[in-house]
Design goal:
- The protein starts with 5 loop residues before the first strand and ends with a helix.
- The protein has five helices and seven strands; from the N terminus they run ββαββααββαβα.
- A hairpin with a 4-residue loop joins strand 3 and strand 4.
- The chain is of the alpha+beta class and 159 residues long.
- A four-stranded antiparallel sheet has the order 3-4-2-5. It has a three-stranded antiparallel sheet with strand order 6-1-7.
- It is elongated and about 55 Å long.
Length: 159
Amino acid sequence: MAHSIIKQRMTAQIEGSFVVFLIGMRINRSWQLHKWLPAFMAMPRMLKELQSQPELGMLGYHLHVGFPTSMVVQYWRSFEQLTAYAGQRDAQHWPAWVAFNRRVGSSGAVGIWHETYCVEAGAYECIYNNMPPYGLAQAGQLVSAVGRKTTAAGRLGRS
């Protein structure tokens, strides 16, 4: 979905704690297309499923495609919802994970990784200028960065 550029300093607010989940893959052997392409193609299906079912807990995401490494930054309401989705056998993730382990395993053809950050309420800050809604601003609520929200310390409540 295309968003208009907002020509002012903005920040984002999100109620309560949340999770930032980074997940990516690295193509180590580009000629082994049959090993890495199925893993690469599985992520859009998962993201579509998660967008269509907000009750699963994903608040938003951004896909960063590059070579040899691609990554998705995801925002989740809770760690429990993230892990519940990962283990849900009738959802897109579980069969993709099983297929990856069967097809690739530890062959070295393609690397996968993830990092999970549990963010306590108010323990974050962000700034956007001349940007469409992006990152946490897309997952939470976009607000003007004025008053105490002018500085990073202020946005963290430390001014």
